[in-house]
Amino acid sequence: MWRSNVLYFSNTPLLDVIKTLNRRYNIRFVIENPEALEYTYTLTSKQTTIEDILLELEKITPVKFVLTDNIVHVNL
Fold first, then answer.
1. d(Cα 3, Cα 6) in Å, to the nearest integer?
2. What is the rounded CA–CA span in Å between residue 70 and residue 2?
3. pLDDT value at position 2?
4. Which CATH code of 3.55.50.30, 3.40.50.720, 2.60.40.790, 3.40.50.10860 fits the domain covering 2-75?
5. DSSP class of residue 57?
6. Phi, psi of 15 (to 5 degrees)
7. Alpha-carbon gap, residue 64 to 68, rounded angstroms
């Protein structure tokens, strides 16, 4: 969820995180490993680029995000 240009998640399932980022950045996500969807995220971030946000998300769980040609591949 975005509030005043701050990204805020509280125990948010990865699928909801993906939906939020998809709407904000108009970027497609491909789930390479469905087990990644079992993780939740709690994060408050002022980062503005998708790359920086993905790096922050990677610090929270073992899920990895690889951005290639406007597609984010999600894997463990």
1. 5
2. 21
3. 54
4. 3.55.50.30
5. H
6. -60, -40
7. 13
The answer to whether the CB of 73 falls within 8 A of the CB of 65 is yes
Residues lower than pLDDT 50 in the chain: none
**Number of neighbouring beta carbons within 10 Å of residue 53:** 20
Domain boundaries, the chain: 2-75
Separation between Cα atoms, residue 56 and residue 51, nearest integer Å? 9
Q: What is the pLDDT of residues 27-45, one digit of tens each?
A: 999 999 999 999 999 999 9
Tokens of 2: 């975005």
Residues 6+ apart with CB under 8 A from 65: 54, 57, 58, 72, 73, 74
